[in-house]
Fold these 4 entries.
Entry 1:
Amino acid sequence: QNMFLKSHARKVATPSCSHHSTIPSHHSNPSLLFLQNAHMVMRQYFNESALKVINRRPLDNLERRNFLSPQHAARTTINSCAASCERLNRVYPRSRTYATTIIHPQTQRIKIDSPVHPSKIRNVGIIAHIDGGKTTTTERMLFYAGYSNHLGDVDDGDTVTDYMAQEVDRGITITSAAITFPWNMDNRINLIDTPGHIDFSLEVERSIRVLDGAVAIFDGAKGVEAQSHTVWKQASRHDVPKIIYINKMDKEGASLEYAMKTINVKLRVPTIPVQMPVGENRHFHAVVDLITMELIEFSEKDEGKTMIKTPVDDIDSDKYGHVQVAAHTKREEMIELITNHDEELAEKFINDEELSVQDIKAALRRITLTQKAFVVLCGSSLRNKGVQPLLDAILDYLPSPLEKTPPKAKSLTTGKTIDIPHDEKGPFCALAFKVLHDRNRGPMVFFRVYSGKLSPREKVYNATQDLTERVSKVVQMHANTPEEVSFVSAGNIGVAIGLKKTVTGDTLLSTKLQSQEPFTLKGVVIPPPVFFQSIEVETNKQQVPLEDALQILKMEDPSVTTAVDEESAQLMLYGMGELHLDIIRDRLINDFKVECYFGNIHISYREGITESITHTHTVDQPSGGSRLFCTMTIELSPLDEEERERLPHSASGNDIVFEWDEELTKPSVEVLQSHEDTIRESVSTGLMRGPYLNYAMNGVRVTVRGVKLNIAIPSRTNDLAMQFCANQAVYEALKKLKAENAVFLKEPMMKVTISTDKAHMKAVLNDVSAKRGTITSVSHLLGDDIIEAVIPLKEMIGYSTHLRNITNGICSYEMEMASYEEMPDMERKKLLESFGYDSNF
């Protein structure tokens, strides 16, 4: 070892002068930097067993030395390292305590076009309720991986992933950010930090759509909260395997058992804790790895970089005697939970075979990939405890692109569903899941590659829109900083510059597939807006800048929509919530410098039907040198409550089905089945505007009975005829129902959870009743009374301030969307009068 290190002294310990500028403040001593370089080389070339023992005393002495020159420091450091290893092997042959220090002398950033086997790639998202610690955990991951050289803080506004001015000002994540960093030498993690506020659910939805795995973070004192429940369901809907990280274990009232209980009860999933916290609340300082049976402590001297691992049986029994007993008990419970879900490990356990660490981890991996149960880890990211084991767990348990279920696609020629296997050498196939607008570069399209690779200056076929565009550059994103790469291959996430017309949810293919068998991947579900407000410019000169700015915002965020009110001719801006609209206002005024003012916020209600109707509509008119002809027969019927609950996820709350009648179909049922997606999309568009007050329809089933086409005209013309006919058929059917007084208004209902104390319990209950709320349950948890109720969204506007006023700022609440229910007659009349209609309209 001594000879090896001396021969590598020049390579290891002779950095350039500019290198020193990247050293963190706690590494200001250059001798320590050289020492760390030496240890990196030792860990790379020598067997890990030779490095398990590190005596810190010579290193501390070394840090205090004043070297005459860098060369002197290098020689002394290398010799000291070699001597330390020899001395430790001789003096401490039986010691099993060792320290693992994560050392990065400069920022470590890898490019996605660097060679790495797909099995070593993890595409992972961080999901949680707002203020669950997502961004803080991400910052620690980047710091320990060497991606950044400082620990960013949300309160200070200096985090890597929260880069928007609006994010810094509010201390929350608004837009998802993508980061690529290495872990454990040659492994690559493509990480997406997602928002936690309910108004930005689309950001979570489109990120999860392209991820292979997720880390679900829960507050150790609160467990499952409203939005954590929502994002969990989003991940489950896309069949994304998850591991669980219980954060904030240093918080008052934090409890691993309580957090897991809320997961078991509210999410209805089994959990397998693989760690045990040591110390409660503010005394939390370490964890026990129940797989390796080691106590893991995190050094506070270097911000948690050094993990001191000690076998549980070797720890001080006077200090940690209770930990030893509890750890063995928890390990037995863990093994029992694993064997309940994995037959292979259960068989070894029954046969009294030794269960190695590799056996247990392999079983946990199988369980995680099949989602039979979920691995649970714990820590406190803000206090720099527990993040490195979480990174290890991402590699150990979450799937690589090779292990994820191949995405489904629909052939545009046959209409059949096909699998898209992971193939680096196959034709290019990717899904565009996000678009950002850069003032200098134009649209920047985020895409996930499922097959093949994409290089700069290549043409791609947009199968969703049936058009071809050329990619000028391919980059990878470091949060908001792009870096050019030579290609993006299967299993990775990249950004394309030069695609002017591509939007969220589009399928991008190799131009070769355009002439062979093009297909489309499942897109991204865009939720309908629930709030809107009017927007006007101060001068006519601002009209064009406003339209341009809104076009960019709608391209970036498809949940932002606009419409012109037919009666008032005012421009209406639609969004997902008060905060969402506030962010849009902020960006229009401060980012785009548009001088405009906004009206009051209104709720976007829905319309429903009470009766069924069957309607046939025919389109027969000239169009661009050909003739559009289509006859469509549809039936509209209301969905009852049970049918709505059984519906698969639908942003609109409507159901569109096909029950083909051969007598009403031409040329044949088989031919028209390949056009069902086109018809479904057009019917959905028709349902976006109701006949009462032009609100979107909700709770309607549309059954398509038959379609007749002119088979002599081209397929694209037939598609256009079907789109127009479907839209008009829905419009006319709804118009007939309105004439029969079979259309009514529905208002959004919110599921509200309020935490209060006994002193304010009565006041809160009375207030809920006054807001037309229905109390569903009252429970007691950790000293607080928990009230769950369903309240109309209209009554919840400004509720945060109202609740603080009636409870002296003591109580808090959370809410999430529940359903749309029929509006009471009195409220309906008030709404009509606010729009200037007669109450009997």
Entry 2:
Amino acid sequence: ADARRLWAAWARGALYYFKTAVVLAVAAIPEGLPAVVTTCLALGTQRLARRKALVRHLPAVETLGCTSVICSDKTGTLTTGRMTVVRVFVGGQELDTSTEVSASLDRDLKQTLAEGTVINSSFKSDVELDSFGKVVKYSGNDTECAMLVLASKLLGLSVGYKGLRTEYPANDPDRCGISFSSDRKRMSTFVRRRGGDGFRLHCKGAAEMVLKLCDKVMTADGPEPLSPAALNALNDRIGAFADQGLRTLAVAIRDWDVFNRPEAVDESLETGLTLVGLLGLEDPVRPEVPDAIRVCTAAGIVVRMVTGDNPRTAQAIARKCGILGDGDGPECVMTGDVFRERVTDGDEILQDEFDKIWPRLRVLARSSPLDKLTLVTGIQASKISTPQTVAVTGDGTNDAPALHRADVGFAMGIAGTQVAQNAADIIVMDDNFASIVNAVKWGRCVYDNICKFLQFQLTVNLTACFVAVIGASILAQSPLNVIQLLWVNMIMDSFASLALATEDPNADLLRRRPYPRDQPVLSPAMTRFLLCHAAWQMLILFVFIFLFGDICPDSDLTSLCSPGTVIVEGWGDIRSGRPPAFDSQFLPKTLEDCPPVFDPRNNRTYYSPGGNKSLKIPLRPADFCSEAHHSEEMPTQHYTMVFTIFVLLQLFNQINARKIHGEFKVWTGILDNKYFLWILGMEALLQVFMVQFPGLNTAMGCTGLTMTQWVFCFFVGATSLPLNLVVSQLPLSWFTYNLARAGGPAGGDAASDGDRGKKREGDGIKLLSMVDQ
């Protein structure tokens, strides 16, 4: 019988230690972190979708928070994408299309210009006008739609451009086309002239490209040779249009008589052209873009405009947007051909030469999709500064390689092709640059929310592990039982992740520099938070475990010692919940650590308080030695208070964890997050429920507490809040580890950047400086 009882005791002990080891592993290993990160990213994805940003790749949400460079298209992103022909230079005169342009031109000139804009356009481009000639809707290419509106004004609303399309149908056997390309920057259409008296090639494209192919210019009196003086005047006119931020296109023609039809229609026909006129198209800057660019500058994000426009046009638009400032010189603007010549050698990027250019480059004009890919690749590969995180916008099929290569690719939801959208990480549903900046703000919010949860979970992990391990080592059993540790783990992984992941972004997110992409997640400020709060929690818990509780040999009460039975008086008017084997070492020296079973004849087995020999109190129950280390003790108020204080310390510390940069105003914005308040309140109510509700508290290893004990536990747990004020004032240098791997500002910081290069005070993390960009 004794052997069976010993084997049963051993089995119970082995099972107890096994359960404790498993729970310690669960508490020590943040196994819920991947799920929490996924939850944060998923919540961020849902919120971005409500703000016109559809996330296709989940990790892109976090990467947004590190974005330091945005390479943006101009048309439709920085501008409205609603092209309008506002200036026309035809027949030696410049006209404003807002007036009655039709009455100012010769009939033949109007007809030729209208034919050049309508015939030489895609049939997919269409315009819906109301009865007053105002645009209702553009369909297809915006540039061609703007030219179709001009043609309708030239021909009269009663006729419009659709009459010309009827005369020159797409299925005409004599119709041939030379398509547009980013290299040629022009397109041409070859048709049989009206009446069948010959053939005509209509050409339109970038003004400087088409003008090189012209040797005559159309006037009211007919074609005239293009003299050097006239050519200079036209170039000046193109420059004037560009300085006004207008995209300048040229329309030209070439005729053949009926007997000299060319055998093949190819690029060789685009010579000896006659210039019909110059068109100045305006694409207004979106009203919200200048403010968005200013926000990017304050956030340490450099916006670079990549466009196919004339350099002077691109420069004018960039200044309207705020991409170029008054102090930016000519080195900030470069054309695609010069860029390629300087930084590439065949298919290779000359990184040393590239590094001389990109820090100051703000506008890349007359660029091709390959130039955009080269720019993104070169910035990512640069070693002269902290590694950059590059975001790119694109809408065309040719933009797909750059979108795929970028750290974050933004495709346009309205103007973007399916290929571009498939290659992108995020689709901007309204094609608006302000939506991109808003997405970056939410990306930073998601990144910070993950950091908030991480510092909170590591604090709980560290405290729980130390308390459980040290408690088990000294007391032979953990002060926190298996169910209690699982409940704490649920607070860490489930409730805290939901509470902290639902924090909304605030204005401060876009007032600091982005994190470098190789920056350690655990910053010195977070390390300070983790170590100080964990140390404070362990100090409180160990004091309460080892110094609180009266020692008495036995009692009919589980929470209090029977009157007159206290052998060693501890702090607090409660009975010790520590194992008897541990408390026995504090008994009088005349008693052994494991005295024999109670025998009234042996004064070494009982205690007589006050020397009253008639009162003999047994020093231990009968099974003390065999079960003191392994038995499940009855719940005590002592250990219930230890458990409650531990949980309340975490709940109050959850409020502190809302800030990760050393801020001491942890209450700021807390009322704006109703989810956080609901979850925090639910955690507190569940804790009360598990301690006070009969039956459930027994399963949790707890017993009910008095109101006084609850108030005491509440105020002890609330010490986390004032402690955080003290912790936030400790020097970060005490907690700084080597960040050399994270990179640092390059040598030779631009003095002109001034305060913009300073890192944010209080967080102790190395942030990107403006010289790096």
Entry 3:
Amino acid sequence: MLAGARLLLLVGSAAAFVARGPAPLSPHAPAAARSGAVLAKKKAEEEGLYSDTVSLPQTSFSQRAMAATREPELQQFWSEKRVYERLCETNPGEPFTLHDGPPYANGDLHIGHALNKVLKDVINKYQLLRGRKARFVPGWDCHGLPIELKVLQSMKSKERQALTPIDLRKKAAAFARDTVDKQRASFQRWGVWADWSAPYLTLQPEYEAAQLGVFGAMFLQGHIYRGRKPVHWSPSSRTALAEAELEYPEGHTSQSIYVAFDAESVSESLAPYGPEGLRIAIWTTTPWTIPANLAVAVNANLDYSVVAAPQSAGGGRLLVATELVGSLTSKLGLGEGEALEVVATLKGSELVGTTYTHPLAGRSSMVVEGGDYITTESGTGLVHTAPGHGQEDYQTGLKYGLELLSPVDDAGRFTDEAGDGLAGLNVLGDGNTAVIEKLKTSGNLLSVDPYQHKYPYDWRTKKPTIFRATSQWFASVDGFRDGALAAIGETEWLPAVGERRITAMTQSRSDWCISRQRTWGVPIPVFYDRQTDEPLLNEETLSHVQRLVAEHGTDVWWTSTEAELLPEPYASDAGRWRKGTDTMDVWFDSGSSWASVAEAREGLRYPADLYLEGSDQHRGWFQSSLLTSVASRGQAPYKAVLTHGFVLDEKGFKMSKSLGNVVDPKLITDGGKNLKAQPAYGADVLRLWVASSNYAADVCIGDSIIKQTFEAYRKMRNTARFLLGNLHDFDPAVDAVPLADLPELDVYVLGLLD
């Protein structure tokens, strides 16, 4: 404002002088005078006739940014002068800890990383300007299957066959560290300030030891146990998966089937209608689970009907939920004039105790009471129950003491338990088809119907998963669910909808399967009795392994014998024990970061002031961090949580290589091969796009949006250049005006800017 007023004063004076001009030379002046005047005029024009009377802007701040050259020079200047470090050391205010959620170290950075890291950097620099010590420790998630796959894909078949677990781990670690170096350089190019020389990596020995400490604290408090129950299993990865490792792509179609089980004996209420000729109608979208069927569940409060079926539907009588009689009729493809005729209606509770014959195995099973998960939204209202292949089925099986039958191996193939002609078949392929054919041959198949629905896929391999009972290690969320919900209520959520999302997810969360059948990860530090398979895990063994890991890293688990890994007195009897081979879920890895970073590093504090990630992390990192912290420390690891949306293309579509709409942040900052078509806009334009976006919702980006952002950046740069140019001769010691002597308008504007 002051510079602008001063500029107007200068321009006004010069304009008046130019308008008035010098006195004209008389035509009657002597020739010599006229000649001298001409020479003087020429000289004055050469030197600038009014150079002493006009104050023009002067600045070395160029109109062109030359970002590809100047920005790295500026970043090098920051580094050499230790600008960030000195502010963190000398600022007088309290520490401010924004704890970094670790990106995965398995590829190049994308535009979503740019949105995330620049937002964090803006907040940290704001806190530094406020005088707080905003130390920022960047992190990377370095374990898990994606890195294993990258390593294996880079090797030939013979090399993979000869690969030992420790060799794979060393190659995976080298790959992760190389990726970290590449990603770190990109983050620095974006102008992000952080402890780049001392990041946290989940493969560091001190980090792994802290993670084992969290695991140990949870185990000793009774929150971790070993059990056999159905879990999400990825046949393509051959490992169990957590809910956060699943995705539900659109367009999945299953072959759903309607099947009639022949009644063997009936309850008292059903006696007038069977068992002769009575069949129990069930529906399933997973025909491959039929060999594992051990019960049919009903909702005690629903109405069920006995209906007479025409000969085209097998004749006899069918048992189906009353509200679904019409739906079943349409699925059976009955002829003109044919229908399912209701003979009797009973409550679900009156059906319990009825038995039926398994159509493939021939065994006798029972109709049992299920729960509220049984509805009349689809199917028949009578739920095919296989305790080894479903969560609700498992709970119902526990209630009735049913066997945990799961005739499927690690690769997703039927085992011999599945029955004749099925062993070795893939349950998601020819095994599924074979079951349908067997049901058709036996006369129990009523209908086959393609059914499009959401189905869980492995987020890494992009292939379907199954529910399968296996022996795993679990965190019992029920033991600390109330504490987690209380901690959620004590946390500030930005935007507020985040609290509702994570609350709902935590309320409905089942036990967390934390074990994985992989090599590249942090081992579950357990030993098993070679005879009984009973686990050995206690405070002494945990502490001993934790000390070894802190010194040598988790490779020690693979390079050492049981005698070296066990403390006394167990080491003396080491032949009795074998070390486990499971590793921890990578969400447990990253979810323990508060313990090795915020809680352990100097200059940081726990709970952290802020966690900031994408909105998908309510079921991911936000939740895993919450659960580990509450279970082991009794509090949330954060005081506030801020979420941002996803990055979409200009039309609002999800970015995809197949669509060709992916925006590479490197092209924005450094340009492409053809700089005319893909100019180097620089990190400032990328950062301005982030700063000007409504990050609380999904954010769009594309060529036109970047060009608009660049135009806004040019206006800002030229405005700054104009102001700097007009301040070139401003000397505060001489030209500064005391606040009390300023015009009211200037005082008002300064108040707005303060």
Entry 4:
Amino acid sequence: TKQKNNLATMADSGVPQETTALLGGDKNETDKGIRGDKIRPNLSSSVTARASFRNSWHTPIDLNDEPKSERRGQLAKSYSVNANGTASYLSPVEMGRHELYDMVPFAAVFGMQKKERAMSQAFASFAGDLDAMEADQLEFKKSRTHLSDSELEKRRSHASVLLLDELEFDAVMVTSPLIIAVAMASMLQFLLGYNIGVMNAPASVVFPGHSTGSWAIAVAAFAVGGPFGAMMAGKLADSRGRRGALLIDTWIFLLGGLLQTLAIDMYSIIIARFIIGFGSGFASVLVPIYLGELAPPNLRGMFGTLTQFAMVIGILVSDFFAFPFATEEKWRYLFSITPITAALLLLFSPFLLESPRWLLGQDRSSRKARYIIKLLRGLRYDHEVETEVSHFVSASQNQHCDGSCENDTVNSGVAFTEMLMTPKVRTLLISCLILQMGQQLCGINAVFYYSTSFFEGVIDNPLLGTTIVGAVNVVATYVALLLMDSCGRRTLILWSSGGMFLCCVVIVLSLLGYFQNIVALLAVNVYVSFFEIGLGPIPWLIVAEMFDAKYVTTAMAACSQLNWVCNFVVGFVFPYLNEYLGPYSFVPFAMVLALTFIFAALKLPETQGTTPEELMDQLVKKNSSVVYHNMNIEDAHNNPIDLEWKLAMEQLKQEDEAAMESGSYNYGFKPIEGVQPPASGSDWQSGMGH
């Protein structure tokens, strides 16, 4: 019954009869159309694949019998028909965007650009093959001869390049509302980084005379609040909206920053650090989701990179501000940066947009969501907005959002149970959790929390050494971005853990007096550099690459919780390690790095990101039951409205040329109907006189 209803609807909407036959008519007609499961890459080298398509396209228009004017007036719109009989009227570019929305998770993750580009290339090749096959079949219907292999390859390459350029246009089409949203969300990541490093320099000037334990608790309280904030972020984002949750997080930073700035004793500092840690954990979960839901799929990796840079720049800025403010008289100015930044964010909050995905999850007919999409994408026409809405809705359904984002938390619990019950997925999850433990227990935050006290007695100006480490951290983040495009994830983990292990050995030997103290400073900087190229970004990146899009958010939430717990352990324990182990304080970190190296070498799968060829095979399997029609990418590359206008102008031109040939064309010399010319010149002159 559903199939018959679809047939009737499509017949009323002008769908060609060939599609109707394909949905359930004559058996001989069911082979007409290009099926996704028949696509194979490298058409020029596959004569067999080309032959399998020769009779699969619907009967074309007879160009010799049809009048030229009628033939020129036809606009064949591309569409696809699913196995259940539903039709989708999307252009090849819109089909590509639809696939990107489905396959790229709604999260801004550092280093995900390569996967996004690979997906665009995969669909461009997939659609290019469809275009070439259609051209071959149309040529066979017209001349009873097939295109040569070189002609097919030329056609496929040209179509793929056109489509790829259009798909990657989103990467450069950035609107002002999107820039403002990214800037404001990134400032929350900046505050996260700033509060990681702000306690490093003033350890000896904030309430002098405090014990090692009280300062360790104050530093570690940041990591105690983190997991609670990460846990609450998802619930508040679902109930109050992404924008509302961001504003709540900003108020949390403002409250914690004011309490820390106006602290009266170490207990106030500890409470303030817990509140700021809560806000930081909140931001670490919410910001990637918010930016991922605002950005088009091929910009989510870049926005994830921007937030990562915002965090490491925040650490560096805290080191710079320590030079003038890390004194007994001015340390409160150092802490005041947090509430000042939060107040500025609240001042500009009217420019912060709500997530269209969340709005559509609440109400699929939301006019506000459509207005925001129009602003974010710079769209002009309603049909473009509706197409974008369909991308959001379809991707949300595929990524376990059942239409009500209030159920996302429930879905996360169900998804986590499902992940544990599936052997293959459980293995991937355990691998990600082990890497998260290695990331924190390797001791990197011992450097960012305590490097100033660690460098005391090692170099003349410990604060200068801390600032150098912060600067190296920023540069190494950029180097990591370059390496992730060319090196495998497992390879980077091995280099990172192995290099950090050697640096720990050198640090210990330097502190024991086997090398000069300057060698210890160099070893710490190299240690940070090796961290940033592997153990820093990779544990988060592989979550987006290992799992299907529907599991990414759940896996990231689990990893975030464990990451904060290990962060607390390092922040609380290192002062005691430094006090009781002395020069051997980095030995426990070296042991963790050795175990991480062994695990990566023996158990960790390579996750460099799926290649375009592998992604294309996935597209073929995914669309094996879909039949594509009118996949002419070169014609579809133009705006349909521009094509209609062009055809209308050509028709007017033909009518004018025909009127000129027949002598009936009006050149503008005929008198205007209803207006009588003057009888004589004198009357005309007299009329002018009046």
